[in-house]
Request: fold
Amino acid sequence: MSNPNAHTDPKLTQKQAVAKTALTHIEDGMILGVGTGSTVNCLIELLTQVHLKGAVASSQATENRLRALGIEIFDLNSVGKLDLYIDGADEIDAQGNMIKGGGGALTREKIVAAASRRFVCMVDDSKMVAKLGKFPVAVEVLPQARSYVARELVKLGGEPVYREGFVTDYGNVILDTFDLQINNPIKLETTLNNIVGVVCNGIFANQSAHIMLKASDDGVETVSFDKAINQ
Ligand code: 5RP
Reply:
């Protein structure tokens, strides 16, 4: 049966399929780390089908949606390590490195991902890339450091574009940085983090995915990356 909402998002059917598969990774009674974005929104709609103790949200938007379903929200500081974090991505490579932050929630997402044992990433078939970098790298910056950080990003070969009218959940601004050469995702993630005034950047190579659930029109494929679980 065709999806009546598919015209609003050509990948909606794939996002719904991958979210349904992600549901099978959730264990009874767990506190789930929940990402942000349209793919995650498809997952949230299904969460009433499983029994969660509660959730740690990666953004205010996700928190609002979870609360609306009656799911208890926990502060990350009060729960210790989470067993599972589920999120989407803007790009993912064959090693599970990702670019995230299209929705601007990168910092909180990266914190919750770092505090989780496993990261399950849900993508549709438009997100898989041979090399990261076509999608701009979001760099969250303290407002006062915006121009300085922009100049440093230019020195690294990037073309930063100020995300006008957008303020992060932490009150910061975002520079969407095009044209960065991401030959070594871990190294560039660290280099960007070392610029004074940068809060976080959208390369997720240290917090790469353990499992990718990849949707296509033929179904959902599960890809496990050879990576130790975060202890
Ligand atoms: C938000 C993110 C999202 O995971 C990413 O933008 C993918 O979103 P969508 O599922 O809507 O394509 O990193 O900051």
Notes: The domain at 137-202 is CATH 3.30.70.260 (Alpha-Beta Plaits). The mean pLDDT is 96.
